[in-house]
């Protein structure tokens, strides 16, 4: 936790906060903070800044909060991700949110195992908790939007054209010959990046995406797990963000 | 498993292999392969190529193997990593090996919890198994060398100068103002990259490394978990490999 995130409801008045939950435990046990110490706080979907401890005991931490800084810039990236297996999904949500991704579409694909859609990881509470963990790691406050799309063709044909409008559209696809661009010319451009399941999108799915304007890109001869491919591709596509 | 790795001892003669273990199960159950099918094989620390199934039943798979291709190029990178917590270490070894890292030094640092050094993940058999999983994912055959260095100062003062000789030397350090280079001028240059523990190297450790010629680099205002930072930094430092 490199920033402690607050909800609007945590505020007793404009700049007074009292914490009694796991955040209080974190401040006492992990940060080992004392009275008058200053820590980094952020309001979920709002600004970030300092909080000074004005009272602390084993039951509560009382803080004077001054949020005056903007969170770091979001990546202009929409991630369209064939639903990974639940354990991997957890790590990918947390790391993608940490990297600054604000829009994630979890979609179906021929090679996505049906059982993955039943996973409790897909519950809103779990996705929210993973997103908050990602923000707390990366010192960010802006929650991502995560959408679940259980039907490939209706999503790609009816919704994706609007979603990907005005973006460069790429499919991470180990079988293609076109290398992933790493170019200043892409800088600050919106990108919509589709990543297939283990084994990749099937040819028919690739063709459907290509019809919308998506271009396949590879990243060398190595086949990477999705959780490794996501940070590699983000670092290549947005070199000036890292 | 995108390549099936063989040991020299698997060969009955120059190009005949019989598999009866988990690799046989993988070929039958996951790949659902049949007689005459051709699959990708590699000799550990050797070449890769095709294997044609000439006999298959529930107890064994018999293959004619022809290894004529070189594995993908290794990254000219030495990773010097403050020992992460065991769960994270597992994922970092697997993903780094998948990315082509061939030299990993696991070192101590002030903020490394002592208990981490007791983890069974550090046993040679476990590190080998994780490395093989990384190679099998990435279609590579060359095992990494993984070294354990339990004393920071003697390692840095007595061994690291030789290890990092003729390399660009960087420390991933969120607190520095110098951004991570992403430059063609670095291309194919050897790099020695040091990554601290959760909370970072302490100032004294940074200074000791700087005395050897290491330069601190950051990757934006976001603080990334080591398992996310490694692929991001590798993609930035070696843009032409991905």
Order of strands in the sheet with most strands of chain A: 1-4-5-6-3-2
The level 1 CATH classification of the largest domain in chain A is Alpha Beta
- CATH topology term of the largest domain in chain A: Alpha/beta knot
Number of strands of chain A: 12
Query: Which percent bin holds the helix content of chain A?
Result: 25-40%
What coarse outline of chain A follows from CA principal-axis ratios? elongated
Q: Spell the H/E element sequence of chain A.
A: EEEHEEEEHEHEHEEHEH
The structure class of chain A reads alpha/beta
- Cα-atom Rg of chain A, whole angstroms? 20 Å
The assigned CATH architecture of the largest domain in chain A is: 3-Layer(aba) Sandwich
Main interface pair?
A-B, 31 and 31 residues
**Could you name the CATH homologous superfamily of the largest domain in chain A?**
SPOUT methyltransferase, trefoil knot domain
Q: State the end-to-end CA separation of chain A.
A: 20 Å
Beta strand % of chain A: 25-35%
Write down the domain tally of chain A: 2
Average pLDDT score of chain A: 93
Number of helices of chain A: 6
- Say what oligomer this is: homodimer
List low-confidence stretches of chain A: none
């Amino acid at each position: 936790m490199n920033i402690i995130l607050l909800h609007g409801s945590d505020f007793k008045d404009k700049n007074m906060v009292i914490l009694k939950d796991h955040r209080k435990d974190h401040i006492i046990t992990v940060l080992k903070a004392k009275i008058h110490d200053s820590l980094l706080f952020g309001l979920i979907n709002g600004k970030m800044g300092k909080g000074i401890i004005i009272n602390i005991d084993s039951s509560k931490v009382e803080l004077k909060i001054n949020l005056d800084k903007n969170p770091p810039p979001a990546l202009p990236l929409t991630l369209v991700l064939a639903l990974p297996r639940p354990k991997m999904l957890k790590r990918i949500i947390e790391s993608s949110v940490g990297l600054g991704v604000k829009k994630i579409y979890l979609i179906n694909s021929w090679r996505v195992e049906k059982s993955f859609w039943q996973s409790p990881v897909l519950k809103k509470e779990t996705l929210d908790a993973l997103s908050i963990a990602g923000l707390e790691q990366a010192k960010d406050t802006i929650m991502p939007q995560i959408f679940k799309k259980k039907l490939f063709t209706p999503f790609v044909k009816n919704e994706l054209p609007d979603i990907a409008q005005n973006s460069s559209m790429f499919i991470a696809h180990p079988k293609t010959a076109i290398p992933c661009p790493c170019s200043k010319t892409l800088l600050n451009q919106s990108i919509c990046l589709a990543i297939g399941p283990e084994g990749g999108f099937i040819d028919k799915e690739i063709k459907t995406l290509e019809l919308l304007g998506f271009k396949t890109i590879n990243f060398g001869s190595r086949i990477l797990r999705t959780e490794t491919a996501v940070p590699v591709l983000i670092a290549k596509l947005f070199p000036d963000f890292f």
